[in-house]
């Protein structure tokens, strides 16, 4: 009998093993995706998904980018992307943007596109509750596919916009990139095809060149329509066939060459200095042939690479938390690089001038991993982290946002991959994760550091004394014979060691209109609970209480209180130990001491909720000092600030000036300096932190997500009800930080690029009423529309003008209307005059009905989506309790939109956008 049983068990074992996905088999496409190809070659990918409800994400992906441009066309791939918003067959001139915005879809935030080396992708998130409108949106995609009119007048108008976009990119980063790319991508076509192109081409390219580019490359066999959302896939398929079948490929179509980056042997070195580069950084790339995920074997190898990345990240993180880290930042990570190459990238930011120490430290860590591999405990933690992440995604398989699916499908099309579904991903991981041995991971680690082709890029300030190429090569290839194997220090102690008695509930209130339960504990803590089904396994915790750094005359130590605490681990665990303890757990807890309040932010799964609450409990009752980690973190801050002080960038000087002007040089708004950080006493900062969290009375905790109220009440009573309380309520202090109540015009001259930045601020006080705040929101958004229309579309003088009106009721109700844009220095006065003219129009005439309708429709669409998100409810509930407002009104937040009118916006503009109180701060290049 035993022999028969053994035989049966052996047979079952063999059967189970046989059920594993074959490693030589191609990975399967997600069966929920409808995939098809039209006779003209256009591909389509359609997936039904109801998160969020009544919404869809549409994409037109085109397998062309700047890499296909001729020398006479450099910049036209990106320019064509712009022109598809400036006149198409069915939407002349700017009508396309106007139509979409009237539908509630916002230009920039929603409607957008990007152009890279190898692709151009158009993005269109849309509502799906109107079939007629949905069909109209597909006509937009079709027009983008091949119906751009390329009106010469519109091309000429858009030249200025594209040039302004190019101007925004000018600066140290672009100058450095232009010197790096010829070496990094040496021998490749990519080195001379940056998507932004050449200014000379943008300014003067003939109209015929645009037409030629469109005819050559905007063709169906290089395109795909991707649609994911709350719709009937069959209806969508018919729409795609209706609108895209008419397009034809040109006769003798140009081949779409797949360009490569040559894999060169040896170590290529490039050293770049720049006047505005504030720190020294080294980037070492170990280049490898690209590894695509096409088969089961490829997927298994990808898991090995992920485990490698997790463990390398853990090691560098641990090194960063030492008392004297050898660099400001360091990392080693394997990922895709460009074209047909992957790269193992080691990046390090040097401390001060010690580039040698930084490079050698990274090389030592790489050698340690390459020579000795990883430990069994490291691999186990990495597997736990990977598995818990997969389980979290699987738990949310029916609550995953459409944008996640659409981006994966676009990537699959562009890179000739397949998109597997989460059920397959989890099953594959369950089948193979346990089989991946330490020897296998260590073998990969040794191989990946053995690349014959490397590129070393060193970037530093103009004043830095950087070594010659030969010395850099010596540092990279320095003998690492003395490197020691990594020792994994693991501590096994309970997270909470001295738990107080659970608190008692003294009141419970049901707010049925919004599904909220309000609890009061006997220590003065209020708990607000909203169970939801928006996610299957997500719980968010938000909490706050008035107080903050405003209560202290000392400026710096309170400002560093939460910094010291966050770098000091949790309870009995120091920072390094905490990272290891949290492996395999989906939990995050952070605390903060702000200017006016203390706050807690946390998230977890249902399984890890108790861990999150334990960590919060420790943050109030048992926050120790990790002297080693804090010392290293403070030293790092000092080095960062020293770099900034030695080489202040134009943006840094400008931002500091703006803060000084708007706060009237208040010391609380002065930029932090290395000297001030050097004087921080960690014990003193931690004492302030402990003082702020020694009394939980007055804290409001909001929990939103996947839980049952009665199920978690005992946990809340234990960990929140036992928080210390002395019965006293905390408040804040008004520090008197106020903007100037007059007109001011300040000019900053810094930098060498021919570009300017302008910020115009209108400020004042208000009564602190929600009605005022709502109309301020509307004015800010409508002003943004007007400035985009005038500065960008009509003038071509600014690429992305920005306008908003911020406000706060505390410490006293104040608002701040902000207008900001970048432009050519010669255009500053003209564009500022246009901005002030648009503000004046709002004051004298109010908002136009069209703009009001765009704002109203966008707010309605956004609000419908927000109501399905845990994060919205968590932040909004906490805000309502802070303000003392009726939380039942949350569902009716948008009712005021019906009252928004030309006359109401006129009255508000007259009240809040006064011409007698504004500040203008302008950044111009040095003379």
TrEMBL record:
One of its GO terms (molecular function) is metalloendopeptidase activity. SUPFAM superfamilies: LuxS/MPP-like metallohydrolase. Pfam families: Peptidase_M16, Peptidase_M16_C. Residues 207-385, 679-858 form the Peptidase M16 C-terminal domain. Keywords: Hydrolase, Metal-binding, Metalloprotease, Protease, Zinc. One of its GO terms (biological process) is proteolysis. Its cofactor is Zn(2+). Residues 46-168 form the Peptidase M16 N-terminal domain. PANTHER family: NARDILYSIN, ZINC PROTEASE PQQL-LIKE. Belongs to the peptidase M16 family. This is Peptidase M16 domain protein. It comes from Leadbetterella byssophila (strain DSM 17132 / JCM 16389 / KACC 11308 / NBRC 106382 / 4M15). The lineage of its organism: Bacteria, Pseudomonadati, Bacteroidota, Cytophagia, Cytophagales.
């Amino acid at each position: 009998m035993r022999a028969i049983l053994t035989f049966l068990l052996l047979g079952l074992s063999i059967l189970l093993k046989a059920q594993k996905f074959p490693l030589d088999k191609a990975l399967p496409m997600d069966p929920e995706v409808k995939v098809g190809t039209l006779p003209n070659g256009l591909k389509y990918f359609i997936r039904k998904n109801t998160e969020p409800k009544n919404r869809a994400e549409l994409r037109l992906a085109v397998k062309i980018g700047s890499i296909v441009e001729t020398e006479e066309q450099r910049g036209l791939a990106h320019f064509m992307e712009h022109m598809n918003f400036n006149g198409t067959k069915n939407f002349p001139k700017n009508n396309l943007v106007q139509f979409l915005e009237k539908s509630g879809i916002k230009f920039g935030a929603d409607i957008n596109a990007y152009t890279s080396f190898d692709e151009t992708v158009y993005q269109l998130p849309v509502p799906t509750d109107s079939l007629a409108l949905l069909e109209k949106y597909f006509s937009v995609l079709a027009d983008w596919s091949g119906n751009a009119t390329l009106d010469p007048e519109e091309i000429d108008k858009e030249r200025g916009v594209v040039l302004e976009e190019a101007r925004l990119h000018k600066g140290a980063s672009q100058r450095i990139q232009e010197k790096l790319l010829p070496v990094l991508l040496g021998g490749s076509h990519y080195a001379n095809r940056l998507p932004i192109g050449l200014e000379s081409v943008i300014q003067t390219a003939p109209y015929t060149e645009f037409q030629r580019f469109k005819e050559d490359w905007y063709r169906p066999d290089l395109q795909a329509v991707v649609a994911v959302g709350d719709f009937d896939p069959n209806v969508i398929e018919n729409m795609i066939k209706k609108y895209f079948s008419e397009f034809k490929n040109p006769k003798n179509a140009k081949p779409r060459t797949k360009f490569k980056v040559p894999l060169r042997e040896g170590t290529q070195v490039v050293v770049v200095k720049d006047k505005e580069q504030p720190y020294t950084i080294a980037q070492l790339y170990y280049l490898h042939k690209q590894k695509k995920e096409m088969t089961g074997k490829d997927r298994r190898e990808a898991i090995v690479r992920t485990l490698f990345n997790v463990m390398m990240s853990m090691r560098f993180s641990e090194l960063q938390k030492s008392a004297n880290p050898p660099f400001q930042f360091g990392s080693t990570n394997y990922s895709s690089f460009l074209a047909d190459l992957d790269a193992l990238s080691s990046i390090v930011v040097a401390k001060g001038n010690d580039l040698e120490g930084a490079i050698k430290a990274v090389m030592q860590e790489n050698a340690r991993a390459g020579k000795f591999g990883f430990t069994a405990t490291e691999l186990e933690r990495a597997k736990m982290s990977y598995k818990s992440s997969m389980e979290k995604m699987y738990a949310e398989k029916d609550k995953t946002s459409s944008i996640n699916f659409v981006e994966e499908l676009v990537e699959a099309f562009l890179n000739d991959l397949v998109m597997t579904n989460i059920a397959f991903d989890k099953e594959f991981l369950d089948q193979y994760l346990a089989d991946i041995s330490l020897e296998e991971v260590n073998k990969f680690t040794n191989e990946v550091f053995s690349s014959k082709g490397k590129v070393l890029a060193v970037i530093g300030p103009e004043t830095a004394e950087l070594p010659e190429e030969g010395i850099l090569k010596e540092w990279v290839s320095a003998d690492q014979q003395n490197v020691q194997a990594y020792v994994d220090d693991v501590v096994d102690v309970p997270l909470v060691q001295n738990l107080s008695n659970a608190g008692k509930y003294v009141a419970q209130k049901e707010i049925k209109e919004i599904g909220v339960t309000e609890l009061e504990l006997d220590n003065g803590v209020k708990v607000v609970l909203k169970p939801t089904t928006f996610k299957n396994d997500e719980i968010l915790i938000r909490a706050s209480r008035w107080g903050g750094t405003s209560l202290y005359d000392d400026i710096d130590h309170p400002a560093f209180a939460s910094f010291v605490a966050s770098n000091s681990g949790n309870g009995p665990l120091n920072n390094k130990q905490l990272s290891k303890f949290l492996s395999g757990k989906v939990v995050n807890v952070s605390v903060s001491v702000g200017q006016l309040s203390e706050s807690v932010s946390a998230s977890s799964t249902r399984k890890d909720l108790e861990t999150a609450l334990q960590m919060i409990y420790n943050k109030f009752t048992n926050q120790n000092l990790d002297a080693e980690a804090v010392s290293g973190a403070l030293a790092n801050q000092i080095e960062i600030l020293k770099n900034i002080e030695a080489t202040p960038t134009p943006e840094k000087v400008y931002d500091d000036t703006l803060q000084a002007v708007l706060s009237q040089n208040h010391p609380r708004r002065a930029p932090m300096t290395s000297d001030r950080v050097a004087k921080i006493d960690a014990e003193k900062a931690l004492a302030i932190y402990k003082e702020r969290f020694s009394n939980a009375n007055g804290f409001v905790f909001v929990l939103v997500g996947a839980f049952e109220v009665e199920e978690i009440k005992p946990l809340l009573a234990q960990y929140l009800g036992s928080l210390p309380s002395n019965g006293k309520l905390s408040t804040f202090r008004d520090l008197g930080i106020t903007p100037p109540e007059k007109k001011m015009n300040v000019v900053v001259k810094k930098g060498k690029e021919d570009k300017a930045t302008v910020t115009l601020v209108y400020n004042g006080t208000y009564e602190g009423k929600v009605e005022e705040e709502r109309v301020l929101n509307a004015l800010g958004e409508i002003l943004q529309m007007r400035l985009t229309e005038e500065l960008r579309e009509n003038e071509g003088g600014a690429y992305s003008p920005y306008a908003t009106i911020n406000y706060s009721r505390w410490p006293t109700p104040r608002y701040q209307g902000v207008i900001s844009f970048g432009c050519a220095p010669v255009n500053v006065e003209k564009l500022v005059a246009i901005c002030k003219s648009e503000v004046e129009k709002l004051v004298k005439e109010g908002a136009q009905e069209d703009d009001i309708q765009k704002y109203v429709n966008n707010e309605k669409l956004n609000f419908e989506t927000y109501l399905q998100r845990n994060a919205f409810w968590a932040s909004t509930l906490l805000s309502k309790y802070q303000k003392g407002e009726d939380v039942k009104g949350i569902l009716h937040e948008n009712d005021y939109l019906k009252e928004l009118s030309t006359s109401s916006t006129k009255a508000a503009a007259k009240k809040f956008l006064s011409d007698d109180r504004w500040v203008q701060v302008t950044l111009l290049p040095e003379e």
